Amino acid sequence: xxxxxxxxxxxxxxxxxxxxxxxxxxxxxxxxxxxxxxxxxxxxxxxxxxxxxxxxxxxxxxxxxxxxxxxxxxxxxxxxxxxxxxxxxxxxxxxxxxxxxxxxxxxxxxxxxxxxxxxxxxxxxxxxxxxxxxxxxxxxxxxxxxxxxxxxxxxxxxxxxxxxxxxxxxxxxxxxxxxxxxxxxxxxxxxxxxxxxxxxxxxxxxxxxxxxxxxxxxxxxxxxxxxxxxx
Length: 231
Prior knowledge:
By secondary structure, this protein is mainly beta.
């Protein structure tokens, strides 16, 4: 998690070009950028997904080994007024999490690789401050739904056959912040956002006393996105 914050700080300090936007009296770039009713762009970025588990009994926890993934997608923005924008950001998010289940002596039973390819559909409200020279901070939040193409939801096999199953559709709420930088030819925006699932994603094994899923009350994704937007 700390590594993502470091990446965000590094890319926010993009060297002389971005730092120059904080000059007291900068040359104003893209003065009409925010005036059109509709605006378009794309984003690239990083993600780190995690799971939050809730348990029925006080037994050893399932361990989650997180890794970095990537995001790519498009942006459609509807200008509501000077400070509010409605954004739709459909994107493709790829990530892998490894789950470690306690109580097993062999790796085949103890480890599950959870490879997820999400098609994400967030609808977000962007709340901006007044433009300050060539930069403008903002807060963003909203709701989203995603389709997990690697969920194994329809599989008849379960963990007894080394198949970890999740629900294909997940619902989230999202919140974050960022800064718009108005460069000479385009607007560049680094942002950081937390995502939190609101529904249980786990599909239980056929055996209700399964050592993998029997003690799980709920399993919900949570994650962190660092995106870099070009508009």
